[in-house]
Design goal:
This is DUF4062 domain-containing protein. This protein is of the alpha/beta class. It is built from 39 helices and 12 strands.
Amino acid sequence: MTVDEQDMVAIRTPDQRLRVFVSSTLAELAEERAAVARAITALRLTPVMFELGARPHPPRELYRAYLAQSDVFVGLYWQRYGWIGPGMDVSGLEDEFRLSGSIPRLLYLKEPAPEREARLTAMITELQAEGADSYRQFRTPRELARLVRDDLALLLSERFASAARVADAGAAASPAADRPGSRSLPTTSTSLIGREQDIADVAGLLRSPGVRLVTLTGPGGVGKTRLAIAVAERLEGSYPRGATFVPLASISEPALVLPRIAAVVGATIDGPRRPLDVLVERLADEPTLLVLDNLEQLVDVAADLDQLLARCAGLTILVTSRTALRLRAEHEYPVGALTVPAFPERPGVAELAALPAVRLFADRARAVRYDFELTGDNAPAVAEICRRLDGLPLAIELAAARSRLLDPAALLARLGRRLDALGPGPVDLPERQRTLRATVEWSVGLLEDDEQQMLATLSVFLEGWTVEAATAVSGLPEDRTLDLLDELSGHSLVTIDVTDDGPRFGMLGSVRELAAERLAGRADRADVERRHAAYFRALVEDADWPAERQGEWADRWQTEEENLRVAIRWFCTHDIAPLPHLFRILWLFWQMRGRMPEARAWIDEVQRRADALDERARAELLFTSAITAVEVGDDDSALAAVDQLRALPAHVDDPYLESAAQLAISWILPAVDDLDGALRAASAALDGFRRQDVPFLAFAALTVGGVELALGRDEAARAHLVEVAELGRRFGNTWLTSAARSQLAGIEVTSGHLEEARALLRDSVAAGEETEVATITLTFSLVAAAQLALARGEAVQAARALGAAEGLRRRAGLRAWPARRRAEADLVARVAQELGAGDYEDAVAVGARSSHREAVALVRRA
């Protein structure tokens, strides 16, 4: 549907309580109005509605006044045209619509409507003829609520995007606007209060000569993360890459820290290569500011960070942690609370209002109650609340959220009793953390029983969830789930992020910790965890990989990656039977997003227990194991699977698996120089996948093209590779397009079309302008660049490109793709003959030292 495009004007954020005017007749759409109200409040917006039971429509002056103060118009229509008031030619329903032209409009029409009044039909027909708006149809209140929720979320995201485009245009001339890569610093939605001196001190420390590691220490909830973000925002203009933010709260094993950093900075970890080496290659080139957030549970990674600093001369690290890392290079900066001093006598309002802690409370209280102001009566109570909470910002914010219901005096009285009753936290927690625990427990304790139950249930999620996920895991109806999410968000215990795909909810880490403790003590914990795993299993299996939109689905799974890991771990512990099918689907995501080492670990774990699987599951596991073995260069494991793959049709009647087995065989056989057998298998796989219209169609076509190229059938190969490049573009799969274009470039070199080859090579690494090119496809491009360089008489450049390809493979634990090994060996021999053994080895050694970025540049220069 269309909305009024008010250029460059952004809708206010949900925290500012955007107002949504709901227009409809009252009696016939009562259930629908209630459903819409719930959908609006679930997004933390304010519905503007009239439930004046004595009248068929509210007075004209009243709805006009409220409409003038609203930000979005929602119109609901069914059968009745509505009441026409004294002195009016149209009903209030139509008058509301005509008055709403200056704000975005969302319109919904209930069907069927066998008794729709003529004037309403005429109104709808006239408005549709004008082309200004279109209607979405619905049948039930639940369907309407879902439509309204999704449309409002999309509308908000569009408006924020418009505002962002204005900001981007204004910043286009700044140096930061030209910096490559995407911003990783989180965008904060509230102001940082009382940290001006801390920001200046930490920024100055990081600018000091010789200071390359600063750790912000302090208790949970003191504001270390917010301070780190503010410091990074101040300094990011001094770093070519900007500042890179790496959240680590969901990581529990120190060994996973470096892979997480690699994922954020866009470094691909392939094969057995150490994550430290991958990061050194990625970060050694230019000055970089790395912000590692929530490292306290991972201090054993300190030695790796020390090595990273030693090997990356331009790297600076800013850490947030409850404890210091105790490295010689470390400079610790304790982050203090926003303390409230003990005044010798009763201070005035102005003196209290100047305190950062009091300013913070007042600011957050106004977010939930717009008319909150500090006065001579309430300011002392606010100051005492902040003092009793030890000035911890998170605790203050949680307390301020209660201003929605309680004035400061009542809040102080309740807080005092609650803290006294709770006592200290567990003895193994730092003393300073016990106050935060008490604060969070107090806030959670104010919830109703069903709200507390929902909060504990939601702790099973990692890094967020959707309404649908919460509904499935809680086992509650969707409307009830929305109500509870709204209550929890109103208590500041659940956060809401409005995205293009609808609202996504999250939970503060400290709140989640307490909620998880509550869940651990519940009798139904196992059921909650089982429903979580089942939901994400169904999400994968029901979606499967679409023939198109592969990039879109890869992005979706990247958002849900932490929840997916939790689900896989659950199945590994309780029921491995579904995992082979999940792996078969997720392999494409793992390949596109560089998660192959992790995928191999999951597959190996399940393979050790494969005897417990049925034949179909073993077949799927065999396929995934074979193709991932080829990816990481494990030829022995791949070859050992060939006979089993050939025998699959006799054991499993499944056309997809039969074609998949042929595809795997076609990838493996070139390792033993059986190109004819590989071509037969690849052609069989391609024919099968064409009949089924499945995602592996493009991979089969790429394989056929690659084998034909290896056999010297260039024109046949060209036809298949052109098809693959187009499929990759249509699927949003840059891996496919890069692989196809690099091999097409080789064909053009052989044909003497060097300019065409250059263009294809540039296109093959074009993705590197936004994301890192996969190592495997980059080596394809490097070999084609060597072919081009040799054809132009630049044998030294050819040797360097070959050296770069070999260096990348060696560091990643890979070998040349089996179907390309013979041709590449011939190319190596020709270049070596052209240069002579000594010069060739020297040039290869230079190329082998190339970093990933330098290798991409080498291809572009070709």
